[in-house]
Amino acid sequence: GKKLHLSKGGEFFLPIANRVLAEHHNAEIEIKRYKQGERGSVSVCVAETCRVDFMRCLAEFSKQYPAIPVNTNVALLGLSEEYLVKSNFDVCFVAEKTINGSDLFDYVVTNQDRLCLVIPENYPAPDDLSDLSFLDGLQYIWLNTYGTPLLMENIQRVFLTRNYVPHYGHTCSHMQDALTAVDSGMGFSILPYSIVQYYPREHIRCLLFGAEEFRVNCVAAWRKGRDNRSADFFIRVIKEIYGNSCPVIPEDNNGQR
After folding, report:
1. For 190-207, what is each residue's pLDDT tens digit?
2. Does the pLDDT of residue 148 top 70, yes or no?
3. What residues form DSSP beta bridges with 108?
4. Is the dihedral of CA 75, 81, 87, 88 positive or negative?
5. Cα gap 34→55, rounded to integer Å
6. Secondary structure of the chain in HEC code, one letter for each residue
7. Among residues of the chain, what percentage have pLDDT more than 70?
């Protein structure tokens, strides 16, 4: 049979029509969501280092309110209070420093994060991390994460206080990639312990630095004066889990995990 071809005008309008259809489809889904269960949805912003805390809340929330969808935005780079305010999320899992001093949010502390040294599992290491010269046989897998200045500042402080200059090797844009590189035996890295928890690897060792060097409170925060019944249910779950106590990473064998 004859082959049909779009005219130049048809080729121009086809992607526009596809976008309109996609928007229409998304609108239908949102309308159906609104009619389900308690109605509405919950929007959540999650810093990469707070994923474990968020997933714990999400799992419990899904059990108690299975009809309410949760729309999640995971931020792989640094977050600011200005971004959180403009984005208008219902709930945020972030570092306390991000919203500390703000009168726009209420929050509870969910965890205390620490820095840890991540090395290949069979690489010999002392319990005392005051001297890092034992790392001379490894390259440093470093992070090109310009959006997390607090993390980079504290990693540099670890080296400066020990008068240690690492042998810089591969660069990674994301923390899970640095873990994968160490897992492959390519070198060592320094990362938040929460990342090691969320992205477990089989062939690494994790040794914690002292709490006095790096300790960040992770929080679940929500905007004051919100008007979202579904978000109220999510916050209720947060308070059930974290309202009474904050999990603290224990000291173990001079920081070894």
Report:
1. 998 988 988 889 999 999
2. no
3. 220
4. positive
5. 23
6. CCCCCCCHHHHHHHHHHHHHHHHHHHHHHHHHHHHCCCCCCEEEEEEHHHHHHHHHHHHHHHHHCCCCCEEEEEECCCCCHHHHHHHCCCEEEEEHHHHCCCCCEEEEEEEEEEEEEEEECCCCCCCCCCCCHHHHHCEEEEECCCCCHHHHHHHHHHHHHCCCCCEEEEEECCHHHHHHHHHCCCCEEEEEHHHHHHCCCCCEEEEECCCCCCEEEEEEEEECCCCCHHHHHHHHHHHHHHCCCCCECCCCCCCEC
7. 81
Dump pLDDT digits (tens) for 114-132: 899 999 999 999 888 999 9
Buried b / exposed e along 89-100 (16+ C-beta atoms within 10 A): bbbbbbbbebbe
Location of structure tokens 């470093």? 142
Check residues 66 and 21 and name the one with the higher pLDDT. Answer: 66
Structure tokens at 177: 């990639």
